[in-house]
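Need the bound structure for thiamine diphosphate, inputs here:
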Amino acid sequence: MGALLEAIHSPEDLKRLNPTQIEELAVEIRERLIRTLSRTGGHLGPNLGVVELTIALHSVFDTPSDRILFDVSHQAYVHKLLTGRVDRFDTIRQPGGLNGFMLRTESEHDSYGAGHAGTALSAALGMAVARDLAGGKEHVIAVAGDAAFTNGISYEALNNIADHTRKLIVVLNDNEWSIDRNVGAIARYFHRIVTNERYNRLHDSAKRIVEKIGGRTAVEVVRRAEEAAKSMLWPSIMFEEFGLTYYGPIDGHNLPLLIETFKFLKTENRPVLLHILTQKGRGFQPALDGQKKFHGLGPYDPETGMTQPAGVPTYSEVFANTLAKLADKNEKVVAITAAMPNGTGLDLFRPRHPKRYFDVGIAEEHAVIFAAGMATRGFRPFCAIYSTFLQRAFDPVVHDVALQKLPVVFCMDRAGLSGDDGPTHHGLFDISYLRGIPDMVLMSPKDEDELSDMMATALTIDGPSAIRYPRGAVVSVECKPEPKPIPVGKAEVLADGSDVAILGLGPMTALARELAERLEQDGFSAAVINPRFIKPIDRELLAQYMRRVAAFVTFEDHVKMGGFGSALLEALQEMGSAVPVVRIGWPDQFIEHGKVEALRAKYGLSVAEAYTQVVPLLQSRKRRTLVAS
Ligand SMILES: Cc1ncc(C[n+]2csc(CCOP(=O)(O)OP(=O)(O)O)c2C)c(N)n1
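Answer from helper R.:
Posting the output first, comments after.
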């Protein structure tokens, strides 16, 4: 099984296959994707949809000299299989194995790394212009899904392409889905093109000509006929207005058609956009039946597609249910997501308050400015955006929300290490980038009950606030029936002590407790503090402890630089304290993908590491006290 695929060590091997073998290869690739991902998890649906497209691209173009870019690059598994990574494919998303996205360090065939949406067209234009300036001949091809066209950057690139290069191929891979159903006017526009009957009739005959005759002449004849038809059917095709010649829509699963079309497009001396229609999840019925679920998922049964039922609720679910409750009581509460209704939990909010639920597409900057607009009119927007994706909207957070002191609440899911997805998805920078913004109130709950309380707290704040909480299952504590606001800027003392004060941010209070236990066993008296607020930090409490303890310890699931420990250091320094601070957090480097526990151990986010660093500080005070007495 899989003999053809196993023999592909580079795209050159693919080019030696005959048309029948290429069709068989597509079957083998699908089998491999379904089988491997059933164990590793990953983006099954998107990859099943681009099997023929990727085979066609690698049959016609020559990587690594030609540059193929995939937007987001979650759909680049087939590309990995065809570019010398079959042997390692079973390691995808596993510790030390292949990354789930394109990585320039992983292969010379990965021309551009990505994980966030909307970057392919800009980067491709950059490469095309670099080629033109250097007098090169290579081809640059950007593959972007229909949802990438809900993202502003794609249009910023489109606005420039025709002015700056004459050779660039954009492939619009249209499957009508983002993670959820694609939203907005652009999705409807694509749908209108695809469902226009007259155009499609013409199109079918065009397809037959290309299949029958093949080659450049056939495509040229078809193109001329289509050109005429297009202008009859619509006053303009949007992409043509941007200066890209539009081809399509064509069947993205018809291999001979795709190959012939790319052979033709390769010879074009003007920027082109090829619109292909694909089916997300093609070849695996459970994925066709559950497009949303199979966009990206953990392990499943390769026969039935069944997954383990989730036992414990997630932070996302608690967030969404609490928001629905808050919205029941306050008609000004609205929920905003940037194409992540499922991931953020807002799927649960939507049916309860459909009029106050907004999915704006993959458009984080717009989401934040849209929220700002609503807030100016008295609404209380909750923007549910993953920590990593809010990076996109930094300026709107500063310029539109904070500067105008608007009460927008940023609910940052997946704050902390995200694990298997790797560096593009780790949420390790949000404290650093939000902490310096005036008026921002920044919170992190130790458990799900406190998350609900912080959401209620946010409603009492007359300005911007942000709550960071991690991916996955909650701590499973008893939750109050109704959330209760917490006094802003007040930390919670979980245990008092006089030798050391240990502050564990968010769910890291668990590590703080563990460290305290170990130190108590050694005869030290340890205070355990749940900071709750990163900003404003509880200076009153710090002032009490800085007079008593020999050291502070901070634990945070965030980079150390500019994080919570840094905030504590700054506050202590300003208050004239020289008490040493042991900061436990992520180092100043990008963290690879892997299992959270293993990566924490590797990078010293552990009780053991804190213990090693803090004990000498405590012992030296003990010695000093003994000498003094
Ligand atoms: C800036 C940003 N926001 C959100 C996401 C989460 N995300 C990953 S893939 C995806 C949908 C992509 O849809 P599309 O580009 O149409 O590709 P498909 O999976 O349908 O092939 C989203 C919203 C992201 N990667 N980047």
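Comments: The first strand starts at residue 67 and ends at 70. The chain has a mean pLDDT of 94.
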